[in-house]
């Protein structure tokens, strides 16, 4: 859930497409999503807040999650292959990572629930996977380019 000034919002992925796989782990892109308002009774509407709230909501809605965003339920795609090989099995998704686009947006719900069951770590960038054949030998090449939102984030 995301909260600006008044209501809470939920970004719900309603349709996904598999864009590749790494070591048997599916990597998905977003086909369609909805921004759902979750009203909260403890928040009182104020006209000044309403204008700012609408501005924030419009800014969030302007982000096209169907382009250049990808995720995996089981593979920490936000980390390098070297880190994933060295990591302990079952370590979970490292949200506090340089390449998790929605780390700040989901921080509150992850802390309240004390888990990441209700959230997915989105990576902003590019994921391409192609099969090539050289002299009859088939192999897969994967290119992952990730963008970091860290320059505009205060820690």
Automatic annotation (TrEMBL):
Record-linked PANTHER family: POLYPHOSPHOINOSITIDE PHOSPHATASE
A single GO BP: phosphatidylinositol dephosphorylation
Keyword Cell membrane in annotation: no
Name of a matching Pfam family: Syja_N
Alphabetical keyword list: Hydrolase, Membrane
Subcellular location(s) of the protein: Vacuole membrane
Membrane topology: Peripheral membrane protein
InterPro entries: Fig4-like, SAC_dom
UniProt keyword annotation of Hydrolase present: yes
Reaction(s) the record says it catalyses: a 1,2-diacyl-sn-glycero-3-phospho-(1D-myo-inositol-3,5-bisphosphate) + H2O = a 1,2-diacyl-sn-glycero-3-phospho-(1D-myo-inositol-3-phosphate) + phosphate
Protein name, entry field: SAC domain-containing protein
Quaternary data: Component of the PI(3,5)P2 regulatory complex at least composed of ATG18, SAC/FIG4, FAB1 and VAC14.
A cellular component term, taken from the record's GO annotations: vacuolar membrane
GO MF annotations, alphabetized: phosphatidylinositol-3,5-bisphosphate 5-phosphatase activity
Chief place of localization: membrane
Residue intervals of the SAC domain: 60-155
């Amino acid at each position: 859930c995301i909260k600006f000034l008044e209501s809470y919002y939920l970004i719900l992925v309603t349709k996904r497409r598999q864009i590749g796989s790494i070591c048997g782990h599916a990597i998905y892109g977003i086909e369609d999503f909805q921004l759902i308002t979750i009203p909260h009774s403890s928040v009182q509407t104020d006209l000044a807040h309403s204008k700012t709230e609408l501005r924030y909501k419009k800014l969030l809605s302007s982000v096209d999650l169907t382009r250049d965003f990808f995720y995996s339920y089981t593979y920490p795609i936000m980390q390098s292959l070297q880190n994933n090989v060295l990591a302990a099995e079952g370590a979970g998704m490292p949200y506090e990572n340089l390449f998790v686009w929605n780390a700040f947006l989901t921080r509150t719900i992850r802390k309240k629930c004390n888990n990441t069951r209700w959230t997915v770590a989105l990576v902003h960038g590019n994921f391409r996977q192609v099969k090539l054949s050289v002299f009859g030998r088939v192999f897969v090449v994967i290119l992952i380019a990730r963008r970091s939102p860290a320059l505009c984030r205060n820690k």
